[in-house]
Amino acid sequence: MSNVHELKFLKEKIEQLKEDGVYRQLPVLEGANEAEIMLNGKKAINLSSNNYLGFANHPKLKQAGIEAIEKYGVGSGSVRTIVGNMDIHEELEVVLAEFKREEAVMVYQSGFNCNAGTIQAITGRGDLIISDELNHASIIDGVRLSKADRAVYKHCDMKHLEEILKEKRENYNTVLIITDGVFSMDGDIAPLPKIVELAEKYNALTYVDDAHGSGVLGESGRGTVDHFGLHGRVDFCIGTLSKAIGVVGGYVAGSNTMKEWLSHRGRPILFSTSLPPASVASITAAVKLLMSSTEYTDKLWDNAKYFKEKMSKLGYDIGKSETPITPIMIGEEAKTMKFSKTLLENGVFASGIVFPTVGKGTGRVRCMVTAGHTKEQLDRAVEVFKTVGKEMGLI
Ligand SMILES: *Cc1c(COP(=O)(O)O)cnc(C)c1O
Questions:
Q1: Which of 372, 328, 332, 318 is closest to 351 using CA atoms?
Q2: Which one from 76, 110, 146, 184 is the annotated catalytic residue?
Q3: Which residue in 58, 136, 243, 259 is the catalytic one?
Q4: So what's the pLDDT on residue 225?
Q5: pLDDT of 1
Q6: Is 243 noted as a catalytic residue in this protein?
């Protein structure tokens, strides 16, 4: 009999990944996440990070973190409900609420566990969750953890959303509509004004995960809700502190009642240690920096526009993005991965994204332009896209 501890059942699955051509090694980054990086020992222009504003290695944020370590140490030592709720956690939530123009904010250890913890806390048996089919994995997991029933509408399809509301609304207590604010694979923005209108018509609540909208859209990066002028009309505004803000963490902004409830029933608040002091202080510094100047968001959009125009001119199909996320649509999976690999060999890191992350036959190389890139770096990247694209017959 074979030894169960050899994990043969996993080895077989790993072999299958290799056969399917989707097996991969984790790339290794040597040094900070910057516009130019050393990846797997090779120098490359980084077009794959979510570090939209270049905050991940910003001197002011680093200084704030170092000072917090000196005063508060490296760990909070507890969950927030016991003795891990420091004054700096409280301060961060006040600053974030002001930034988001909402009554209150509850901070979590990541965007992922904000969704995992919040959705199950605010819904239950007898409720219905209606979710966009392209919502992020953490929303899908969050919905799975809830005892509510669920329905999925076609991506951004408002007719379909209304059909579901019309058919099902009266059978449920609370109905919660969940959508990403910005969809990370295509860079398109959810039709929030229409979603809010339908929610109001059918007496439903709204929940917007703005991980890729925070720090990017709206005044000084206040997010999708601000972009559309919908303050006060979205019940739960989720954001991440790990992407544009450059550190780690997640939050939900909304009403005082929401926060009061989550402090009793948000499981990651009760059962997982709070964010470490350095992260908290760096995040607070980042949000204050954003509120004091539009310099970073302006540079981000300027760079995005610049890069998109050049890529389009080269003859690439850059999809239907409305944000700095720039997918280079390729189609076939193997070709997409080969393109990404060849780009890296030539000094540009842009990750290939294929099925099952996106639909079959819709493979793309996804470029994330940031405020941290110089025009010269973007020009060099475009040159590589030109050479490799021609070599591979893509343009
Ligand atoms: C990245 C992302 C998250 C996860 O955020 P982390 O802070 O990295 O855990 C959640 N939701 C969406 C839509 C995301 O894009």
A1: 328
A2: 184
A3: 243
A4: 98
A5: 62
A6: yes
Secondary structure E strands in 117-249: 128-132, 149-153, 175-180, 205-209, 236-240
Taking a C-beta distance cutoff of 8 angstroms, is the pair 105, 223 a contact?
Answer: no
Q: Assess contact for 216 and 323: CB atoms under 8 A.
A: yes
- 274 vs 75: CA distance, rounded Å: 8
Provide the pLDDT for residue 24. Answer: 85
154 has catalytic annotation: no
Does the beta carbon of 131 lie inside 6 Å of ligand 1?
no
Q: Is 88 helix (H, G, I), strand (E, B) or coil?
A: helix
Positions in the chain whose pLDDT score sits under 70: 1
Sheet architecture: strand order including 36-39? 29-30, 36-39, 42-46, 348-349
**Residue 349: enclosing H or E segment and its boundaries?**
strand 348-349
Q: Which of 285, 283, 275, 268 is nearest to 74 (CA)?
A: 275
pLDDT of residue 209: 98
Best residue for ligand 1 mutational test, from 180, 210, 240, 242 (most atoms within 8 Å of Cβ): 240
Tokens of 49: 């990070």
Could you tell me the distance, in angstroms and rounded to a whole number, from the CA of residue 86 to the centre of ligand 1? 24
Residue 356: asked if its preceding bond is cis (omega within 30°), the reply is yes
Distance between CA atoms of residues 355 and 362, nearest Å: 8
**Going by CA atoms, what residue is nearest to atom 6 of ligand 1?**
111
Q: Is the CB of 112 under 6 A from ligand 1?
A: yes
Per the annotation, the verdict on 184 as an active-site residue is yes
C-beta of 372 in contact with ligand 1 (< 6 A):
no
Q: Are strands 250-254 and 325-331 parallel, antiparallel or unpaired?
A: unpaired
